[in-house]
Amino acid sequence: MSSRQMDRKEIRQELINAYYSYIGEYHINNICDEIEIEKSDIDNTRVPEHLDDWFTKYTSKVKKEELHKNILNNVRRVLPRVAVITLILIISMTLVTLNVEAIRIKVYNILFAENDKYSTVRIVEEQPNTDITESGEDYYLPTYIPVGFEIESVKELKNFLIIVYINKVNEQFTFTQAPNGTSFHLDTEGSIKEEVLISSNKGIFIEKGGRNILFWSNEECSFYIASGLDRDSLIIIAESIKKK
Amino acid sequence: MYKYNKNIKQHYSWNKIEEIYTLYRKLLYLTAYNILKDHQEAEDAVHSAIIKIYNNSNKIDDVRCKKTRAFVVIIVRNIAINIYNRKKMGSEINIELSENITKEEHLIDPEQHMLRIDNAEWVARKLAQINPEYADIIVMRYTYQFSISEIACLINTSENNIRVKLYRARKALREVMKDE
């Protein structure tokens, strides 16, 4: 069937449907006219009480159902918003709680996180930080310096001290100290690591390609010596530090 | 009346059904009783009609308009007729489908029949005289624009019965127009 024929058929169908609907309108009018004719009979009709009773019960049931449905719809509409607000509140409360220093426990730990290319060493304070160490000008300094070494440079950045020692043949070692909590990134790719004790404090010795690193901490500060000097020399230097 | 109205939906449907019942309870009851001649059965027909009207109350815009008045009469009348037929036959009449219903066979052909608007009232009256159910089914399908399944649900019968009644109504309508 061609599209033109189809269109014609559809138009014809619509026309007929419209005509049926038009006849329907007159049927409605006819029904209403008949109701008017029978008006007195209708008015004189006595509806049984049962029917009214049934209707009262039916409407009360329907009212309950509709109210219930309405409440459910409202709950469904509001619930996602409440969930989002609650989630935000929980996250905010969690963040606030974690940031309150009073609830943190005092334990000093060396956290040693290994990555592919470097290691992060950080002394973490997990306790009420009511006694934060303010190093100020009171720095720890090594009292033992290997023979021939002298201070080449000192860099001081608020609580952070870097001293470079050098000898006549240009060998050098760097002594660094910083308050606990400072992160140190140590190049440990392909290195040998060893746990050591420095004046009863835990430390790490790292050996990589002729360059040695010793890292340790006490209750106030973290220390870091990097040098071509051997392990034992570094440990002696480390054990000699004193506050000045 | 049957225009979907969003604002109406926001109101409780029981307000509307209460108004309908208050206005038309006598009309509903008398219509059912005139067919069934039994008080209890007439009550049952009204119960059923009220439930059906409530379920479709979102489509009722104006409770007092002619379309609503005719709608409640059509619903209760057809429910009562179905109750009467079931009682008479012992079970629901399943109209045989051997009448080979085709969609087009008994449609009015506008090219053969003059679709005269001025005689629509006469055609409607004549059709209702042949069988009021035919006129009712035409109104429900084409004026109120209910689907076959909606009509079946409204008057408690099967979709097949509605299809057959609609077919017969259109066939009767064609005969009426031939005789005109």
Description of the molecule:
By secondary structure, chain A is an alpha+beta fold. Chain A has 2 domains: 3-98, no CATH class; 108-243, Phosphorylase Kinase, domain 1 (2-Layer Sandwich), CATH 3.30.200. In chain A, 41% of the residues lie in helices and 31% in strands. Chain A has 4 helices and 12 strands, in the order αααβββββββββββαβ. In chain A, β5 (160-166) and β6 form a beta hairpin. Residues 103-111 and 126-136 of chain A have low confidence and may be disordered. Chain B has helices at residues 6-10, 13-36, 39-55, 66-89, 120-130, 132-143, 148-154, 159-179. In chain B, α2 (13-36) crosses α4, α3 crosses α4 and α5 crosses α8 (159-179). Chain A binds chain B through residues 12-13, 15-17, 19-32, 35, 38, 41-43, 45, 47-48, 50-52, 54-55, 58-59, 62-63, 66, 70, and chain B through 12-14, 17-18, 21, 25-27, 29-30, 33, 39, 43, 46-47, 50-51, 54, 66-67, 69-70, 73-74, 107-110, 115, 117, 120-121, 123-125, 127-128, 135-136, 138-139, 141-145, 170, 173.
SSE topology:
The complex is a heterodimer of chains A (244) and B (180).
Chain A: H1 3-37, H2 39-44, H3 49-99, E1 108-114, E2 119-125, E3 140-142, E4 150-157, E5 160-166, E6 172-179, E7 183-186, E8 192-198, E9 201-208, E10 211-217, E11 221-227, H4 231-239, E12 241-243
Antiparallel strand pairs in A: 1-2, 2-7, 3-12, 4-5, 5-6, 6-11, 8-9, 9-10, 10-11
Chain B: H1 6-10, H2 13-36, H3 39-55, H4 66-89, H5 120-130, H6 132-143, H7 148-154, H8 159-179
Helix pairs in contact in B: 2-3, 2-4, 3-4, 5-6, 5-8, 6-8, 7-8
Looking at this protein, list some descriptive labels:
heterodimer; A: 244 residues; alpha+beta; Phosphorylase Kinase, domain 1; 41% helix; B: 180 residues; mainly alpha; Rna Polymerase Sigma Factor, Chain: A; Arc Repressor Mutant, subunit A; 8 helices; disordered N terminus
For the largest interface, the chains and their residue counts are: A-B, 38 and 49 residues
Inertia-based shape of chain B:
globular
Strand content of chain A: 25-35%
- Give Rg of chain A in angstroms: 44 Å
The main pleated sheet of chain B reads as: none
